Amino acid sequence: MAKKTVGLSGIDVREGDLAAISEKVLSTLLRDHTTGRNIFWATHDYESLGSEYDFLAPILPELITGESEGVIKPRVLKSRDNQTDRSKDMAEVFTPSWVCNAQNNLVDEAWFGRKDVFNTTSSDGKSWQANNEKITFPEGKTWKDYVRTTRLEITCGEAPYLVSRYDTTTGNAVPLAERIGLLDRKLRVVSENTETSGEWLDWAQVAYQNTYGYEWQGDNLLLARENLLATFVDYYRAKFDKDPLEKSLDFIAYIVSWNLWQMDGLKMVVPCSCRDGVTEKVETLFGEEEVKVNCPGCQENDVRKHNGIYCLIRDWKNDKKKIRFVDLIK
User: How many CB atoms are located within 10 Å of the residue 290 CB?
Assistant: First the structure.
């Protein structure tokens, strides 16, 4: 029997509720598969809470549950001063849903070869009317092709381009029928074209396996991962009027923990992993000598020469093999 997942319904997914559903799910959402450790804070915002919250400290379950419940919260629920500081320090700017919708519509217009596939925007572009008819596909393309398309949100924050459970700038919840995220659209298509729970789950997994995003700050990354997991619950409930099994949540969390990862988007490495003052042996006119060198990638602004830890992702289409993200950059 599935555990009740009502705790995943609100705008702010509570880590304590996740742990109550499955401690494994919360642990998985905190995992960094590149380093084999947990994602880390990568922000100074929490350092007043103790050394466990330092910039380079890992985010551990006990630091965000129990008496520490609510430490991590969506941007819209943070204080105005905190929002301003993060914008200044990390250029953190969150995009309203109507902008995400307009840009996602352009992606689908290119794929479908026509406009207004999932919704029609208002004259000012700041609202939209959902298309309630079943989505049809152009000649030579099927709904399965659409679900398999690769989508990536760079510097994803709380992942508003992927899933739109709420508007990240206002905090207003978005009804399921009006959601506009790239993954929302895939899950809608899956729901429209499957009947049984097993078939739906198979294709929902394909949708998740082909949806990616990366983020620098650990708290944002956790929020993004939580939003993708909660979105899975939302669509499953809407389709079958019940909660998914714990094993289904576990597997979706595992996919999400691979596909949304912590990375410096300019260097393609784990944030702050490049090293200066590294001792290396080099050949000189006087023979082999030890010298201290700085990160060549940082010195030369060459994304392929960093001595930091290059981030790994999983290629689900190709025997689930691990690949370096930088190797996908041409």
Answer: 8
pLDDT, tens digit (0-9, with 9 covering 90-100), for 263-284? 999 999 999 999 998 777 777 7
Q: What is the pLDDT of residues 23-47, one digit of tens each?
A: 899 999 999 999 999 999 999 999 9
Task: Give the helix, strand, coil percentages of the chain, each rounded to 5.
Answer: 40, 15, 45
> Would you say residue 272 lies in a domain?
no
Q: What percent of the chain has pLDDT over 90?
A: 78
What CA–CA distance (Å, rounded) separates 66 from 202? 34
Residues 234, 60 contacting (CB under 8 angstroms): no
Domain stops at, among 262, 288, 312? 262
**For 140, what's the count of Cα atoms within 13 Å in the CB-facing half-sphere?**
3
Check if the beta carbon of residue 77 is closer than 8 Å to that of residue 260: no
Domain that holds residue 321: 278-328
* DSSP E strand stretches across 141-295: 151-153, 211-215, 260-262, 278-284, 287-293
